[in-house]
From TrEMBL:
Transposase IS4-like domain mapped to chain residues: 8-91
GO biological process, one term: DNA transposition
Protein name: Uncharacterized protein
Organism in which the protein naturally occurs: marine sediment metagenome
Source organism phylogeny: unclassified sequences, metagenomes, ecological metagenomes
Domain Transposase DDE as annotated: residue spans: 131-220
An annotated Gene Ontology molecular function: transposase activity
């Protein structure tokens, strides 16, 4: 099955994917790149996740004509924005306008007004300590390594609350009986900050508007 968790009996190269009607059907995942409504690159993947195929997709474009087709910027939806792809764009000096999975959520009241999210907790960079809404400290505990489906290795920092015992806010802040824990990838956060600034800039807003037409038109 070549790393897949499903395949069709009538087309063994296809993978079962959730379609727009919410039904599982055998299919493929095409990725296209466009420039002024012209398709300049196409790849077709057996993987349901867009972010898994992004690097291979761009590498194909960069391999043509001795790299002379290298794009100045890449803009894409939240399906493509992850640490591996951000690192890839940075290494190839391509402008990062890829949304990450919480880009739009960050702009909602549900995010902004939620004090229990790690992004909204007070953080002291000098001591590397977060402070929760109850005033308790979440300190750095250890580093951990995670390996993605593509084999990419990412290092995250693990933080844990000194003690959640007796906290009246615990039920809203965490699940389970253990102390509140979360992880932070400094590399990912750095790239997200760059992407956030790029996407919200005057140029980024214009590119986002253009993408809605530039990419959808060829599919029509």
């Amino acid at each position: 099955m070549k790393g897949r968790n499903s395949y069709s009996k009538t087309d063994k190269d296809a993978t079962f994917m959730r379609m727009k009607d919410d039904r599982l059907r055998p299919g493929y995942n095409p990725i296209i790149s466009t420039n002024n409504q012209y398709i300049v690159n196409v790849t077709v993947s057996q993987n349901t996740a867009d972010n898994v195929g992004f690097k291979e997709h761009v590498e194909k474009l960069l391999s043509w004509n001795n790299g002379k087709l290298k794009p100045e910027n890449y803009i894409g939806d939240a399906g493509f924005g992850n640490e591996e792809n951000y690192e890839f764009l940075a290494d190839d000096v391509i402008g990062n306008y890829l949304k990450f999975n919480t880009f739009h959520y960050e702009q909602t009241k549900g995010f902004i007004n939620n004090p229990y999210l790690k992004e909204n907790m007070l953080y002291d960079k000098t001591t590397d300590v977060f402070t929760c809404p109850a005033g308790r400290k979440l300190q750095y505990e250890e580093d951990a390594e995670r390996i993605t489906a593509t084999g990419y290795k990412t290092k995250v920092k693990v933080y844990e609350c000194e003690s959640c015992a007796g906290c009246k806010l615990a039920d809203e802040c965490k699940k389970g009986k253990d102390n509140r824990r979360f992880t932070v990838s400094e590399t990912l956060e750095k790239h997200k900050e760059l992407a956030r600034n790029n996407l919200n800039s005057k140029k980024g807003i214009e590119l986002r508007r253009k993408r809605s037409v530039d990419v959808e038109t060829p599919f029509a």
